[in-house]
Amino acid sequence: MTGTPAADEPAIDARRGNFRLKHVAEQNIERQASILDEMAAQPAVRTLKAWALAELAPAAGETAVDVGSGTGEDVVAFAERVRPDGRAVGVEPSPGLRDEAVRRAAGAPVEYVDGRAEGLPFDDESVDVLRCERVLQHVDNPAAAVREMARVLRPGGRIALIDTDWATAILHPADPDVLRRMVDYFLSGSANPFSGRQLRGLLADAGLEITGETAGTTIEPQEGARQGFVSMMQLSSAEAGVITPAEADAFAKGLAEAADRGAFHLSLTMYAVSAVKPRAV
Ligand SMILES: C[S@@+](CC[C@H](N)C(=O)[O-])C[C@H]1O[C@@H](n2cnc3c(N)ncnc32)[C@H](O)[C@@H]1O
Q1: Distance (Å, rounded) from C-alpha 46 to C-alpha 75?
Q2: Residues in Cβ contact with 116 at an 8 Å cutoff, skipping those fewer than 6 apart
Q3: What is the 58 CA–ligand 1 centroid distance (Å)?
Q4: Ligand 1 atom 4: residue of nearest CA
Q5: What span, in angstroms and rounded, lies between the C-alpha atoms of 69 and 73?
Q6: CATH level 3 topology of 12-164+191-216+271-276
Q7: Model confidence pLDDT, tens digit, residues 241-265
Q8: How do residues 178-232 score in pLDDT, each as one tens digit?
Q9: Residue ranges per domain, the chain?
Q10: Pocket of ligand 1 contains residue 23 by CB under 6 Å
Q11: Residue 4, pLDDT score
């Protein structure tokens, strides 16, 4: 089949970097790992990961689960705290990312298992600690996924969710009309782009008691004007025909010129919420 993808269907190039399960067959694992590494290097992400670990406080002997574990860094952090008798498990539906996580774990006592947030491979009330970071935005039914997380948590078990809210993305400078079309196209490929603001409600609706919340904003360096998310969004919007080649060129040129004088801005806010499963009364 040839031609322009439908407006609500991301171009193949975008699908290669898209973490939605329905695109798993097209995913380019090298690119995905590099997107995750770039994000993990952001100070705001480091701060949120550390906040979640402190809130969860995994202890020796506990079972700690990371849902949508990607390249596995947070599972290794769990393993350091639950050993020698506990379990640190990453649930990850992408076989390529599971392989990459195993390679990176380099023999650490971790397990990576196939599974989805909506159907976790654990018995009722068998998990002490659970985290899920930047995953619910890719999940079609986040409420069902969080109810599933509540099912596997034991009474007194702790949970932390982290996610982006794409309404907080600010990009400057850009023609507002061109930017709106690009952003609308980008968001149409996302299952749940405003996940960040929903975390509290998802946890509360699943019967969990909120124990903390925080937020962190990533600010791209000036090099970000020419690469990564910005160039992916520009290329895929042009490939899909939602902006013309001339608009794509003007967009890229405007951002590059701004970066040359230190005037480029791209920021995005992520939210984190922790909760506990109430003990039976
Ligand atoms: C943006 S990455 C975040 C990875 C990791 N949590 C981190 O903080 O680096 C999203 C992850 O969610 C996974 N994922 C996508 N859909 C999922 C689902 N329905 N259930 C569980 N994981 C899913 C992807 O394969 C990917 O590893």
Answers
A1: 15
A2: 21, 91, 93, 145
A3: 21
A4: 70
A5: 8
A6: Rossmann fold (3.40.50)
A7: 999 999 999 999 999 999 999 999 9
A8: 999 999 999 998 899 999 999 999 999 999 999 999 999 999 999 999 988 898 8
A9: 12-164+191-216+271-276
A10: no
A11: 39
